[in-house]
């Protein structure tokens, strides 16, 4: 009977030793798992923080893109207004160019007319000189005729009267030619001044036309530049719109990732809590196993002492 108890105690001691070793191994493995899961929880938490930070950066970028879109829209509106004003000014410059062409035609006509007037006045002066010369010769002939009539006496009286009348007419013609010459000279001087002014006006009109051409070219270049800027602004706004849409979709995905990460973090924390509770339970089992082992060892000692006592009794 004592031998049977001793064998059972020995088996119990061996079993408790195996249980103790296995529990220690389980405890060690569980502790390793706990540490790994805790590291995973820390990593998940850090990952969640990083994702939240990225989401904040994306949100900030999205706000900046929206502000940029607003500013670009304002710039596009201002550019469109300036382009309209530029178009109006360009139309006005074209109207001025048309007026300048009309003025140029008028100045050309006036200049040609004044030039012809100068030529005609010079021709008139030449004719007046001829008239004065003829009047002088006629006056001289009348004087000679009067002298010859005086020599003829009574027979030359009629001829003398005619010669006197011719002389008077010649003198009047000379005086009228002189007056006309004075008038034409005044007209010539005035027309000469008008001619100079006409040529100056013609040159001014030509200079104005050249200046208007340069201004028109400048307005055309500015108009093309505004058109190009408007197109670039439109392309930029389209790009900003696409980028904003992409950022919004990215933000939605990041928010989903944050939600999933938070759920994973919560699940990991629950696993950590469960493993911690399990480790505590394993510690309790290990302590109970250790107590059981100690009891089995005491039982073995007790059986050993009982066996020795029985052996001494039998020897007596």
TrEMBL record:
Keywords on record: Coiled coil, Transducer
Gene Ontology annotations of biological process type: signal transduction
Entry-linked Gene3D superfamilies: Methyl-accepting chemotaxis protein (1.10.287.950)
Superkingdom, natural source: Bacteria
InterPro entries, sorted: MCPsignal_dom
One Pfam family named in its UniProt record: MCPsignal
Coiled coil: 100-134
Location of the Methyl-accepting transducer domain: 22-272
One Gene Ontology CC term in the entry: membrane
Protein name as annotated: Methyl-accepting chemotaxis protein
């Amino acid at each position: 009977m004592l031998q049977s108890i001793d064998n059972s105690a020995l088996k119990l001691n061996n079993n408790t030793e195996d249980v103790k070793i296995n529990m220690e191994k389980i405890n060690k493995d569980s502790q390793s798992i706990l540490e790994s899961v805790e590291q995973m929880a820390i990593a998940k938490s850090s990952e969640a923080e990083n994702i939240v930070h990225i989401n904040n950066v994306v949100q900030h970028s999205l706000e900046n893109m929206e502000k940029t879109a607003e500013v670009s829209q304002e710039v596009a509106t201002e550019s469109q207004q300036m382009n309209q004003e530029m178009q109006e000014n360009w139309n006005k410059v074209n109207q001025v160019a048309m007026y300048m062409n009309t003025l140029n035609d008028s100045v050309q006509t006036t200049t040609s007319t004044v030039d012809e007037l100068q030529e005609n006045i010079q021709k008139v002066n030449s004719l007046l000189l001829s008239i004065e010369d003829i009047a002088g010769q006629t006056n001289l002939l009348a004087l000679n005729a009067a002298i010859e009539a005086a020599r003829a006496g009574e027979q030359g009286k009629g001829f003398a009267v005619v010669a006197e009348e011719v002389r008077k007419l010649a003198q009047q013609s000379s005086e009228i030619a002189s007056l006309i010459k004075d008038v034409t000279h005044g007209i010539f001087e005035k027309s000469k001044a008008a001619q100079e002014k006409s040529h100056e006006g013609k040159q001014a009109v030509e200079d104005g036309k050249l200046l208007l051409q340069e201004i028109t070219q400048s307005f055309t270049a500015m108009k093309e530049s505004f058109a190009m800027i408007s197109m670039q602004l439109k392309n930029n706004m389209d790009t900003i719109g696409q980028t904003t849409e992409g950022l919004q979709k990215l933000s939605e995905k990041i928010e989903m990732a944050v939600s999933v990460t938070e759920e994973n973090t919560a699940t990991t924390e629950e696993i950590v809590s469960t493993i911690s509770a399990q480790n505590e339970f394993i510690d309790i089992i290990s302590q109970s196993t250790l107590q059981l082992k100690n009891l089995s060892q005491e039982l073995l000692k007790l059986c050993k002492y009982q066996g020795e006592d029985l052996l001494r009794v039998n020897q007596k």
